[in-house]
What we know:
It contains 14 helices and 16 strands. It has helices spanning 5-13, 24-34, 39-51, 59-74, 133-138, 164-167, 169-180, 220-231, 284-304, 324-332, 363-373, 392-395, 411-414, 427-446; strands spanning 78-91, 95-100, 105-107, 109-111, 123-130, 148-151, 185-189, 215-218, 237-242, 245-259, 268-274, 311-316, 338-343, 351-357, 379-384, 400-406. Helix 5 (133-138) links the parallel strand 5 and strand 6 (148-151). Helix 2 (24-34) runs antiparallel to helix 14, helix 3 packs antiparallel against helix 4 (59-74) and helix 9 (284-304) crosses helix 14.
Amino acid sequence: MPLKPALLLAALALPLPAIAQPAPAEVAKLRDAALKDEIAWDITEGLTTEIGPRLAGTADEARARRWAVAKLKALGFSNVRVEPYQMPVWVRGEEKGAIVGSFAQPLDLTALGNSGATPAAGIEAEVVYFPTLADLEAAPAASLAGKIAFVSHAMHAAQDGSSYGPFGQVRRIGPAIAARKGAAAILIRSIGTDYHRNPHTGVTTFPQGTAPIPAAALSVPDAEQLERVLDRGKPVRVKLLLTPRQIGMRESGNVIAEVPGRDAKAGVVLVGGHLDSWDLGTGAIDDASGVAITAAAAKRIMAAGRPRRTIRVVWFGAEEVGGFGGEAYAKAHAGERHALAAESDFGADRIWKFDTALPATAAPVADRLATALAPLGITRGNALAGDGTDIGPVLATGVAAVDLSQDGTRYFDYHHTPDDTLDKIDRAQLQQNVAAWTAMLAIVANAPEEIGSVERPQRDH
Length: 461
Ligand code: ZN
Ligand code: ZN
């Protein structure tokens, strides 16, 4: 393709190499202007106000896709489109729980995604307590026949959110383990770090051959209350009513928008977050802020001139319930060259650290990132980047990555609860995120180095 006159002039004016990286001062200017960004707030406010909860595969998520297309077009992105796919859909029903007998009182709980249902009249059964998931795993086969398993854990807040991986297993696999041991139902202590009387939902999985049982999370205060009642030493019975349903295959979709690049051979820079949310809150920190931060940064690069690489913004569908959007994207775009991928899905609090996964040929990119991000208080980590459920399937093919790690200290106070609402977003911290993403995109989308594939050990997304 012949160079356009303006680009030709620009190329002639520059010293070799012909494709220049943006000067550090230019990156700094874009970064600092983004500290006053209003685009990300506008997207987060609009999505949480005009759409609200948007459970994957439902009419609410479809409405969110239409909203997203209109918003991304209005922002001036190119090739704005929806890529649909089919997925199994689970919807919440009634949910009630109570201790019965001499300590009779209600319990605040919520069904986990993919939970089975009780009969319409509910069930009543004795509770068997397990302080940890390992204790549940150690219970003899069939020992829970007809009982309600209750599993606790010791999750605490951490800046890097690292407690979610191990303690989240109570929610992810606890119900299937209890089902295999014959339990009539399972209650877990919410995978959360707050003492609000809000249970935390989230997905659980029953593998083929394991019939789903009713599975619910108690709020942390309710879990501790039930533990104290059990401590009294008498058998404790709980009454439980959960009526969620699997409603079969439905349409979901990924919303895609692009900032076209100059050099089609240089590969696509993939960024984004997920558009769907749990149904209890309005999905402000999970993940309206993530789609907003990444789109705002891409928009700022677009406004500064055409980057070398195409920046593709994807607002993935159906992340919460099993990463269906990420799988569908990787399948649909398997033949394409991705230079690098990065995802924002950990709230809206400030970025404190970055990590990279870059081929040796692109090592200087990480040094330039360190220089550009340091004034925002962001330090260089020594982990191999690769966060993000939605980009996981693309990263698994060896695509390079950058992680911009957000402060997760208070993330699990609100995560997957009715409290995930707009008021939890701190505007200055949201702007710091946009500034970091803008600087990162300015560097990676324009890097003259080839960003090829990366050796990556198999990891569990
Ligand atoms: Zn999320
Ligand atoms: Zn989530």
